[in-house]
Amino acid sequence: MSKTTISVIKADVGSFPGHSRIHPRLLEKAQKLLKEENGKLLIDSFVTHCGDDLELIMTHTHGVDNEKVHRLAWDVFSECTKIAKSLKLYGAGQDLLADAFSGNVRGMGPGVAEMEFEERGSDPVLIFMADKTEPGAWNFFLYKIFADPFNTSGLVIDPSMHKGFIFEVHDLIGKRKIRLSCPEELYSLLVYIGAPSRYVIKHVFGRDGSIAASTSTQHLNLVAGRYVGKDDPVMIVRAQSGFPSVGEVIEPFCTPVLVAGWMRGSHHGPFLPVGLCESSCTRFDGPPRCICMGFQVSDGRLIGPADMFDDPAFDRVRSRCNELADIIRAQGPFEPHRRSLGEMEYTTLPGVETELADRWESLSLK
Ligand code: F6R
Ligand code: MG
Ligand code: MG
């Protein structure tokens, strides 16, 4: 039986006004270009957006890192960039870091999460897409979903999940990776993933090796060696029958969590789970937020989507996040609202240092 691949590839190629939302003409163009490939390179596709990010969800049989699929995504982003430029949208083409495609969009700006699996009798898949935050934002939620029995009761009472899961962690700065098994290595896992700007969970696997979750881990400033574009990650999670249930997968989003990103990628703020209609960023260019689209994958076809956070069950976390936003915004340019000096994506410090260099006096005793 052939395997199904899901590729979620996203980029910010221009928005309006400022960095807040996608223009409908970009969505239409992307939808049209992907639909032309349905039944050819692709089995199925779905185009959506979160804030200023254009999200391409594609299914096919060509495996992860497939050059043709990546080229298609690159071409879609390039065509949408042309429209964005013609409308003078803000940041037109901002996430396309290269002039021409060279084999794989990883390392070229767009964010990528992919997984390949043999479909079960029925395969529910949840696709999360975020704006105004960084890839490590998923760490907390993946930990809760796949390792915390207070979130996921199946870890305790479902024999098919009782052995736990394996987490693949990437060190974005050290450029290395490791697999840690939970529950045995839970404390070692936490020591890393509690530092989400550097250590990110890339994949989660079942004990039999089956893929359970996959995230995008591109850090554009690390790719380009300077601050450019935005990371705004995506994540694919499989649910039910040996994996956490759909309800267990979305349950951790009921906790208000502070993530890095927001204004100028240089602040911490609450992570709002929202329905698609509420996915555009406003207050202080945010707050950081995410949507979740649920599908049944059926011989590669995407049956859905269901807009999972479009539900009053998430009203309370949204209101608690808004309260947190008020509290942390009141700190203005002070840490921990503002990120630490080394982590800020914008800084005036070198310029200020040069200007004041002669006025600083040594504290050392003569
Ligand atoms: C954050 C984001 C925005 C911009 C901000 C300044 O991810 O996209 O908060 O950083 O609006 O944008 P520029 O520097 O383009 O004026
Ligand atoms: Mg933008
Ligand atoms: Mg964005």
Commentary on this structure:
The structure is a single chain. This protein is of the alpha+beta class and 366 residues long. The chain folds into two domains: 116 residues, 2-Layer Sandwich (Alpha-Beta Plaits); 233 residues, no CATH class. 24% of the residues lie in helices and 27% in strands. Strands 5, 6, 7, 8, 9, 10, 13, 14 and 15 form a nine-stranded mixed beta sheet that branches. Strand 6 and strand 7 form a beta hairpin. Helix 1 packs antiparallel against helix 2. The radius of gyration is 21 Å and the shape is globular. It binds fructose -6-phosphate and magnesium ion (2 copies).
Write a short abstract of this structure.
By secondary structure, the chain is of the alpha+beta class.
Per DSSP, the total helix count is: 9
Q: Biggest β-sheet, characterized?
A: 9 strands, mixed
Q: Kindly state the mean pLDDT as a whole number?
A: 95
Using DSSP, what is the number of strands? 15
**Proportion of strand residues:** 25-35%
Overall form: globular
Number of domains: 2
Instruction: Find the structural class using helix and strand composition.
Output: alpha+beta
Instruction: Give unreliable regions as ranges.
Output: none
Jot down its keywords:
binds fructose -6-phosphate, Alpha-Beta Plaits, 2 domains, alpha+beta, 366 residues
